[in-house]
Amino acid sequence: MAVDLIGSCRAFVSVSEAGTFTAGAAIARIPQPVASRRIAALERHFGERLFDRSTRRAVLTPFGRDMLPSAKRLVALADAMEHDAQRAKLRPMRLAMPETCTVRELAELDAAARALDVFLEFRQAPPRERAELVRTQEVRAALTAVPAEEGTWKVPLGLAGGGRSRAGVLHLETLRVGRSGGSPRRVWIQPEDDVPHLRDRLFRIRDSVGLRPAQVSVADSLTAAAAAVFGSEDLLLCSTAQAAELGLTWRPIGEIRLARGFEVTAGPGEDAQRFRARLWPDIARCLGAEETA
Predict the structure, then answer these.
(1) How many CA atoms lie within 13 A of 62 on its CB side?
(2) Phi first, then psi: what are they for 130, rounded to 5°?
(3) What is the 3-state secondary structure (H, E, C) of the chain?
(4) CATH number belonging to the domain at 103-293, selected among 3.40.50.2000, 3.40.190.290, 3.40.50.300, 3.20.20.60
(5) Whole-number Å distance between alpha carbons of 152 and 150
(6) Are 237 and 251 a contacting pair, CB within 8 Å?
(7) CA 85 to chain centre
């Protein structure tokens, strides 16, 4: 039978320090019969007695005195390893997130992760930078932008603007400038959607329905895009959650269905699959994604 070397040495050290099997077992937080069995197993393993059992007190034999320093070192090393394991479990997982996530959404995701003993530290960045942060190992994982059909999470996009709520879809062709001229309405793409699988598809629809090139433009920031929409009849490409947060009216696009796709990209040695499985619904809520697996 294999010997529980650490458990047996812990009982051995505790009894030697207390002077009796009963007191030593109490120090080791185990029943006295368990302490006796563990020490007996250790003695059988070594082939020598550790204690002189001819007296009421637990007196070390010469062999026991020689073995005690090594037993203490083993117990101390085991305790240090347990401590290091607890610290490692509490080490925050640095996660690169989209800049579209609000403080509240990130806090709710953090709280959900802590309930599973997962501790997160967020780094918000645009799509290309998130992927680079994983490559350079500045973060342990990232929610990277991918085509919607390839992503674990999908966030439908539409066009949002000021004014009264209107039912139905919004066709880009209705934004064509008429012969009378006038100021053309523009569609603003925020940095989160400045990726080929979204931006280029929207540009192709722009060209096919006869809009001017400048009528669909990439903004420097979400703030700049929202400011342009607040002060005009321009529109913002965004999710329903973002539209609600900004107080804008959201409608789907008539000519095309667009959606952000997100996937977990993890660094070397990280378990992306386990992270994805444990926090799937919480990440979905943080992103404003469709809650379908």
Answers:
(1) 0
(2) -60, -45
(3) CCCCHHHHHHHHHHHHHHCCHHHHHHHHCCCHHHHHHHHHHHHHHHCCCCEECCCCCCEECHHHHHHHHHHHHHHHHHHHHHHHHHHHHHCCEEEEECCCCCHHHHHHHHHHHHCCCCCEEEEECCHHHHHHHHHCCCCCEEEEEEEHHHCCEEEEEEEEECCCCCCCCECHHHHCCCCCCCCCCCEEECHHHCCHHHHHHHHHHHHHCCCCHHHEEECCCHHHHHHHHHCCCCEEEECHHHHHHHCCEEECECCCCEEEEEEEEECCCCCHHHHHHHHHHHHHHHHCCCCCC
(4) 3.40.190.290
(5) 7
(6) no
(7) 20
Type of residue found at 140:
R
Angle, helix 32-46 to helix 21-28, in steps of 10 degrees = 100
Q: What is the pLDDT of residues 32-79, one digit of tens each?
A: 999 999 999 999 999 999 998 877 788 899 999 999 999 999 999 998
Encode pLDDT of 218-248 as tens digits: 999 999 999 999 989 999 999 999 999 999 9
Residue 3, C-beta contacts closer than 8 angstroms, at least 6 positions apart: 41, 42, 45
- The pLDDT score that the predictor gives to residue 267 is 84
Q: Which CATH number does 5-90 carry? A: 1.10.10.10
